[in-house]
Each structure stands twice: as structure tokens, then as C-alpha cells.
From TrEMBL:
NCBIfam families: recN (TIGR00634). Belongs to the RecN family. One of its GO terms (cellular component) is bacterial nucleoid. SUPFAM superfamilies: P-loop containing nucleoside triphosphate hydrolases. Residues 2-506 form the RecF/RecN/SMC N-terminal domain. Keywords: ATP-binding, Coiled coil, DNA damage, DNA repair, Nucleotide-binding. Residues 209-281 form a coiled coil. GO terms for molecular function: ATP binding. May be involved in recombinational repair of damaged DNA. The gene is recN. This is DNA repair protein RecN.
Length: 553
């Protein structure tokens, strides 16, 4: 339940604190005093959007904070799913900055509006005058049926299956579209793939072949220059090696005379060995160089093929061609295996649809089972609320699967004897809507572990004995739920276990809305004014006291 409410800097409210009673709280006040403003502030805790226009002082931020006792209401699962700290006391805060930026917190943890709505919707329900309009919509009527049937587990299962089916159906449809496009391109892609496969591409072959061709095209000159290089190093007449031999011999002689020349002799000897090795390698390279026009032509043809393929496919090298070949191979393979893939995807869709049908039937059966009890209970309550000839019929039709199930629910209503029930929006008046909504809220209250219910003038259009009965119903509901009721009717005001009065304070430069909890005498006076006007008569005051006494019994 809501144990403490703080509103700061919101609309006409400078600062307001409210600590509601555990049972039936009545809020009264003149039209425009700020009752709806307070309700709008509470709506921010439920995730409604706001902007800087709500700021009483545009230079300060707005703070709305609600403290809820949630022990025994089985909502810990939601906190776990949203990764929020859970305790028996939950503090929800909403802040609107001067710039208009909104922030929300649950137990001091920042949350987005979606999470805020999910959490607070399990703590508080507001019936506004807008709900009477909603009552005429099939979607809202379906929610009523699901709430009465306590279908949350079945609905979660159905929605999980529905989302699974939609995902698999989307994947199958996408695969079909891709298959159609790929089949159109298959012949061309397959031709290109076979062309590249036939080329037997090797990663580094282009560089290797280009080097080999350069050697073959210059074989005679290379062979001649290798021969000259060899002869400079080593020939029978005069060569570098012969001269170096002489240097080694002389250094060997003098190194015997003194050790200081031994290092020079060793270096000369090493150089001689290195030059002999170099001469041998040059000779070997010369022997391997051959003039082979046939091989050169073969390489030219291979390189021409590689160059043509690179130009055709706009790639820089053979690596690009190989990557393209692999990509085309995957496309070709995918088309060749399309039938298997489509068959598998279709089977998954069929299995998901079968599962969806199973959960849809379970959900639909649960809904069908409560239609008659809802009609009966609401009919009895409407009779008690002064509509003895009213009747409610709930029509259910099976449709294609949607996010809410396969059922379309329509509430058909007749307030008069002998009149065929019709769509609510076509036949119900304001007072009839109020009584019908009260009956619905009453029967749903026992189906939900909802801590706090707020009624915003649900008594619109009713009076007299009917108002007394509506007050009795609220009082009855308050034994298991905290009720906060905004009302203009003294019959309902007298039923409260606590009574709050909203008024405008004009004592400062700027009008502000304030709220105060009334004492017993103040309650009697306020209810008397609701009965007889601003200056109530003695009889009005007596009746006010009597109505309070009767309510306390």
C-alpha cells in the first residue's frame, strides 16, 4: 500500500505530503482545487510522461516520491527479473529537471519508464474518468476477462509462444524471399564460380610466375653476366681468387714471425673461402639458367588469364579472386541446399504454430470459463446499484492469433427491460458507465493482489441510495486493498476511514494547492457542506454526523 506520498514543485503544488490510511481514504475539495493535479503527480510514478510545464517553480526540479509497503503481495519476481533490490518497503521516485529531462528510481536504482511502469503497475491502479471511455474498447474488455480469470501465467506462456512463432515465420518468409532472388542469380553465379574454380588459383602464384617469366625473358643476358662474374672471381689465367691466394700466402708467412699478423691472415683466409663459395654458387646459377621459349609462353598465358580475371572481377590480386570464388561457392551451395533449408524452416514454423495453438486453446478455454460468472456477478451488482433490468452479455469470437490471443471479447449491455444488449459505447450513459465500472472494479479487486486502488470520481452521474451502495462497496474493498477515492458525493465521503481536503491557498504571491487531513469535526463540517452548500443548516450538520456514525459501525 501507499504509506507516504511526497510531491514537490508540481503544477500548483509547492510541496505536499500525504500519509494515507490503510483502508478507505476520501479526498474532497472544490473543483479546480488540485485534486486532479495530485492524481497527475501520482501518474508520474506510474510512468506517465511529463515536461517542464509541470514545474511550479521553473528554476527548480520536480520530485514525486511514493513509499509503498509491498510485503505479502508476491511481486518479488518482478524485482528479480528487472535486477532490482527488493525489500518490504519500496521507494519509487520521479524527478523532472529544469531542462525537462526525466529520471526515475526504484529503491534508489535508476530505471527506464518501461521498468517503472512494470513495477508500479503491480502496486497501484488508478481509475480515471478516461477509463470509462476505455471500457468501450474490446482490448480493455479483454483485459478485464484476463484479470478476472487470473490468466497471467497462461498469457505469458501464450505470448512467449506467439513471439517464437512470429520469429520463425519471419525467418521462413525471409528465406523464401532470399531463395527467389538467389535462384534468379544462380546460373550467373554458378558460371562465375566454375570459371574461377577451373582456374585452380593458388595464393602466391602470380608473384612467383612474374619472377620466373622475367628470368626466362632475359635468360641469355643473365647467363652471360653470370659467366663474366664467375671469371672475375676464378679463372685459369688471372682472377680475384688468385690475387687473394697470394695475399693469404704472404700474411701466413709473416704471421709465423709475429702473432700480431695472425688475425689479418685469418680474415684473408675467410675471405678466400667465401669467394670460392660465391664462385661455385654463381657457376651453379649459370648452369640452371636455360632459354625455354615454350615455358615462357606457358607462363605468359597463365598470367594473362590471371590479369583478365582480376580486371573482370575488379580485384587487385589473386587473393581477391580466391575470396570471390569462396563467396560465390557459398551462394551456389546455399541455392543447391535451399530445399533442405526451406523444408527445415517450414517444419520449425509448423511446430511453433502447433505449440502456439496449444497455448492459445488453453488461454481461450480459461477465458470462456469465466464469461458466465462475470455476467452473473456484474448483473447482481448492477441490480444492487439500482439497475434491476440491466444485463451484460459477453460475446467471444475466435480470430487469427494476435499478441493478446485468439479471442475477441465484446461487452454487450442493456440498461432497460426488453432492450437487446448492444455495444457499450452505443447504449450506456455516464451514470450507467460509472456503476458498471464500479461493479467491474469490485469483482476484479478480489482477483488481484494489488496494494492500492485509486478512484477518480467513479461516482460521476450517481446520487442518493446508489451513491451509498457504491460507498459501501468501496468500504468493503478497503478491507483487502488500500482505497483512495476522489469524490464529490457526501454519501461516499462519509464511508472513509480517513478524509483529506484539497484547497487553494492564496495567502502568498502565488496560488498553491494544499491538502490536509480532517479531524472528526472538520469532516462533519465538510460533509455537511457537501450536503447543504457553503453554509450548511443544522439538519445538514446532523445528517453529516449521522452518516459518519453509520459508517463507523
Amino acid at each position: 500500500m501507499l504509506s507516504h506520498l511526497l510531491i514537490k514543485n508540481y503544477a500548483l503544488i509547492d510541496e505536499l505530503e500525504l500519509m494515507p490510511d490503510r483502508e478507505l481514504n476520501i479526498i474532497t475539495g472544490e473543483t479546480g482545487a488540485g485534486k486532479s493535479i495530485m492524481l497527475g503527480a501520482i501518474g508520474l510514478l506510474l510512468g506517465n510522461r511529463a515536461d517542464t510545464r509541470v514545474l511550479y517553480n521553473p528554476e527548480q526540479k520536480c520530485i514525486i516520491e511514493g513509499t509503498f509497503g509491498v510485503s505479502g503481495y508476491a511481486i518479488e519476481r518482478i524485482f528479480d527479473e528487472e535486477e532490482l533490490d527488493y525489500s518490504n518497503t519500496c521507494i519509487v521516485r520521479r524527478e523532472i529537471s529544469v531542462s525537462g529531462k526525466s529520471r526515475a528510481f526504484v529503491n534508489d536504482t535508476p530505471v527506464n519508464l518501461e521498468t517503472l511502469r512494470r513495477v508500479t503497475s503491480q502496486m497501484m491502479d488508478i481509475h480515471s474518468q478516461h477509463d470509462s471511455v476505455l471500457l468501450g474498447s474490446n482490448e480493455y474488455q479483454l483485459e478485464i476477462v484476463d484479470t478476472y480469470a487470473q490468466n497471467d501465467p497462461l498469457l505469458r506462456t501464450y505470448r512467449t509462444d506467439y513471439q517464437s512463432y512470429r520469429a520463425k515465420k519471419t525467418a521462413y518468409d525471409q528465406l523464401q524471399a532470399e531463395a527467389s532472388a538467389m535462384r534468379k542469380e544462380f546460373d550467373y553465379n554458378n558460371f562465375l564460380y566454375e570459371e574461377l574454380t577451373k582456374a585452380q588459383l593458388q595464393p602466391d602464384e602470380q608473384e612467383t610466375l612474374e619472377q620466373e617469366l622475367t628470368i626466362l625473358e632475359n635468360a641469355e643476358e643473365i647467363k652471360e653476366r653470370l659467366q663474366l662474374a664467375y671469371e672475375y672471381l676464378d679463372n685459369t689465367e688471372q682472377s680475384v681468387i688468385d690475387f687473394l691466394k697470394g695475399a693469404v700466402s704472404n700474411l701466413s708467412y709473416i704471421s709465423k714471425l709475429s702473432d700480431q699478423y695472425e688475425q689479418l691472415q685469418q680474415r684473408a683466409q675467410s675471405s678466400l673461402i667465401e669467394l670460392r663459395d660465391l664462385a661455385d654458387e654463381i657457376s651453379t646459377e649459370q648452369d640452371q639458367v636455360e632459354v625455354d621459349d615454350v615455358r615462357a609462353e606457358t607462363i605468359r598465358e597463365r598470367l594473362n588469364l590471371l590479369y583478365q580475371l582480376q580486371t573482370k572481377h575488379q580485384t587487385k590480386d589473386v587473393h581477391g579472386l580466391i575470396a570471390l570464388r569462396n563467396e560465390l561457392g557459398q551462394k551456389v551451395s546455399k541455392v543447391l541446399n535451399l530445399d533442405d533449408a526451406l523444408g527445415d524452416a517450414k517444419a520449425q514454423v509448423a511446430a511453433a504454430y502447433a505449440q502456439l495453438q496449444t497455448s492459445a486453446e488453453a488461454l481461450s478455454a480459461s477465458r470462456q470459463a469465466v464469461l458466465s460468472p462475470i455476467e452473473s456477478e456484474i448483473g447482481g451488482l448492477l441490480h444492487d446499484l439500482g439497475m434491476p433490468n440491466a444485463s451484460l452479455k459477453i460475446q467471444a469470437e475466435i480470430t487469427k492469433p494476435m499478441f493478446t490471443g485468439v479471442d475477441t471479447i465484446s461487452f454487450l449491455f442493456s440498461a432497460n427491460k426488453g432492450m437487446k444488449p448492444q455495444q457499450l459505447k452505443n447504449v450506456a450513459s455516464g451514470g450507467e458507465f460509472s456503476r458498471l465500472m464500479m461493479a467491474i472494479k469490485y469483482i476484479l479487486a478480489s482477483k488481484r493482489s494489488l496494494p492500492t486502488i485509486i478512484f477518480d470520481e467513479i461516482d460521476t452521474g450517481v446520487s442518493g441510495e446508489i451513491a451509498i451502495k457504491m460507498g459501501n462497496m468501496m468500504r468493503d474493498m478497503s478491507h483487502s486493498h488500500q482505497i483512495i477515492a476522489i469524490s464529490h458525493l457526501h454519501q461516499i465521503a462519509g464511508q472513509g476511514t480517513a478524509h483529506y481536503f484539497v484547497y487553494k491557498d492564496h495567502s502568498s504571491d502565488k496560488t498553491v494547492s494544499r491538502i490536509k487531513k480532517l479531524t472528526l469535526d472538520e469532516r462533519i463540517n465538510e460533509i455537511a457542506q457537501m450536503i447543504g452548500g457553503k453554509n450548511p443548516s443544522a439538519s445538514a450538520i446532523k445528517n453529516a454526523g449521522k452518516s459518519l456514525n453509520n459508517a463507523q459501525q
